[in-house]
Design goal:
The protein is α/β, with parallel strands linked by helices and about 250 residues long. It has a domain of about 150 residues: CNF1/YfiH-like putative cysteine hydrolases (4-Layer Sandwich). It contains eight helices and 14 strands. It starts with 11 loop residues before the first helix and ends with a helix.
Length: about 250
């Protein structure tokens, strides 16, 4: 696997060489890579030209040819968006904080406002990320998400031991005298972000979701939860070719 992001354990020279190999392999050598300094937020950057330095944020969008929007992940959900009608693209980094902040739904909103996109025309791909099988979180996450999303119950499963009470039942209980809350639950970030795409108006048939888990498939992917400081980063990219714009006019 190629580490495609600057980390403490890898040199800038090696990462630059890895990125060149990656761009060559996907036939994007003529593109300018537009990566961000990701901060686990709901900040969306609109690029009219290549940024002089990495901008802070966790989503980007453009309708300019030659820019390759890039998302770096090692468990979080990479989401690539294409509007073939308005010739615009977006890339989203969705960790639990960004998901809770509705970054995916907000990005579609920005595409509607800035490019005139119609959500029914938009295509979306959710790449490999940590699955609910490996993403165990504290029970308080149920409270956080239930306070924001009507369908939050669908995002969670009980912890794998099978001994903990249902966290959603716990939320409905009035103390005292009831069973304690569970220690942990499993969160499905892919399902949560797919739900946001549907809420934003995308058609279910236009949403493609990888079921590969970065935690389970460490032979193929990096996983920060499994590897911590020694984890590298993957890149998910999307861009517009100049010849696509010309052929569409």
């Amino acid at each position: 696997m190629l580490n495609l992001s600057l980390t403490e354990w890898d040199s800038r020279k090696n990462v630059t060489a890895n990125r060149q190999k990656f761009l060559s392999a996907i036939g994007a050598g003529e593109f300018t890579l537009a990566a961000m300094k990701q901060i686990h937020s709901d900040v969306i950057n609109l690029f009219r030209a290549a940024p002089e330095r990495p901008c802070k944020g966790d989503a980007s969008a453009t309708n300019r040819a030659g820019l390759l929007l890039a998302i770096q992940t090692a468990d979080c959900v990479p989401i690539l968006i294409v509007d073939p009608k308005k010739r615009a693209v977006a890339a989203i980094h969705a960790g639990w904080r960004g998901t809770l902040g509705r970054i995916t739904e907000k990005t579609i909103g920005r595409m509607r406002a800035d490019f005139g996109s119609n959500p029914t025309d938009i295509l979306a791909a959710l790449g490999p990320s940590i699955g609910p099988c490996c993403y165990e979180v504290a029970a308080e996450f149920v409270v956080k998400f239930t306070g924001q999303f009507a369908d939050a119950a669908d995002y969670f499963d009980e912890a794998s031991s099978g001994e903990e009470p249902n966290p959603l039942q716990w939320l409905d209980m009035a103390p005292p005298g009831h069973q304690p809350p569970p220690k942990n639950v499993h969160l499905d970030l892919r399902k949560a972000n797919r739900s946001q795409l549907l809420a934003a108006g995308l058609q279910a048939r236009n949403i493609y979701t990888s079921d590969l888990c970065t935690g389970c498939r460490r032979d193929l992917f990096f996983s920060y939860r499994k590897e911590r400081a020694r984890s590298g980063r993957l890149l998910s990219v999307v861009g517009i070719r100049a010849d696509w714009l010309e052929s569409s006019t």
